[in-house]
Amino acid sequence: MDNHSFGAAERVIDHLMQLHPKGFDLSLERIRVLLEKLGNPHLALPPVIHIAGTNGKGSASAFCRALLEAAGLSVHVHSSPHLVRWHERFRIGGPGGASGYVDDQLLAETLKRVEAANAGATATVFELLTAATFVLFAEIPADVVILEVGLGGRFDATNIIDKPAVSVIMPISLDHQAYLGDRVELIAAEKAGIMKPGVPVVIGQQDYEAAEEVLIATADRLGCPLHLYGQDYSAHEEHGRLVYQDGDGLMDLPLPALPGRHQYANAAAAISAVKAAGFSIDEQAAERAMRNVFWPARLQRLHEGDLVTGAPDGSEIWLDGGHNPGAGEVIAEALAGFEERDPRPLFLIIGMINTKDPFGFFEHFAGLANYVYCAPIKGTEAFIDPVALASSAADAGLSAEPVSSIGEALAAICLRTRADQPPPRILIGGSLYFAGNALFENGTPPL
Questions:
Q1: Whether the bond into 446 is cis, omega within 30 of 0
Q2: What share of the chain has pLDDT > 70, as a percent?
Q3: Could you report the per-residue pLDDT of 90-113, keeping only the tens digit for each?
Q4: In the chain, how many domains are there?
Q5: Are 40 and 137 in contact (CB under 8 A)?
Q6: In which band, very low, low, confident or very high, does the pLDDT at 151 lie, cut at 50, 70 and 90?
Q7: Which residues in 4-143 belong to E strands, given as ranges?
Q8: Would you call 73 exposed, middle or buried from its count of C-beta atoms within 10 A (0-12, 13-18, 19+)?
Q9: pLDDT on residue 147
Q10: Are 380 and 433 in contact (CB under 8 A)?
Q11: Residue 447 CA, distance from chain mean position
């Protein structure tokens, strides 16, 4: 599964991207027709944990996988977007809780089958990739599938699943307003579209009461057994441990390996989801999961590599792909916690896609970050120009300047680092694509 020779699948995807739009569909009918031509593989899947939300989808997916694999189960995982390689979207479960990214040749052959079945019909690349996901996950045996929504929920291609084992809605905030609406309650309604009549739903910690109300009302209308954070389950830190609580009692667990207090609620949602899906997770398995969980570019510390070498000696370099105001808030909170324990000058190196709200992201770092360097994102033309991005940072009260690359930003930080101060703390982020650039340039891709 962990085939480190890549190329065949990427060549096929490059071909598909030339033939088909890369965007998202606004109807499920096209993928329904395509899947019928492929023999309806989505109807032959093992139990599905379906996850939507603005923030925390990837972390919840990682926690669910860690929990299930710690219990010895075989787990397939679909996630998006990828950081460096398309293969990251397809994690294939193996015996005894082992897993790895899909084999390159297998992915290439599956994509060719999907394209042949599509027979030149209109389809987006995401629809074709989702169809390939269902083919792979149906034909390779596993105990459970974790299926992450691409965008929204109601019209997302993954929502072709009619009867998941559980639906999970993670925190909702403003993002993708052009597709989902400009108010959190409208976005919540789109995310709530993955709820199905009578299927249990787990609602993660919500920052907006209006969003939570929409989710609860939808669950009530559909007769979904509801598991609501703060009401039916919760988690908090106590004496350096994570205490999870629900109707079955308490679990005393280690703090998650994913940094940041926001991960406590994400871990809790995953535990609740796995249980609601009908899987038994004992405290020993949950403890292993908290210690072993990993999800790249979610406050991931880079300990070695080319970027680390290019930073001032003794620097901390953190990587996070969070890209909207809600993500900015939790990342800034986590970095403020780091600052309390170990004060250091904080520098940001940020690249953002041009559909995002840079001011809403940057405003949470005012008074916390010493300086911001704004860079382009390689591999796409849809990034905010670094000059404009630096202007947004300045509007949010930050000192900022444009640069041409992550390497140029690190060189500038070296010049700004003073001998009478601790080595700096550096956050590289603002986009999962930009985080992928950083992993590639550092020489430590997630594959």
A1: no
A2: 95
A3: 999 999 888 999 999 999 999 999
A4: 2
A5: no
A6: confident
A7: 48-52, 75-78, 90-93, 99-101
A8: buried
A9: 98
A10: yes
A11: 16
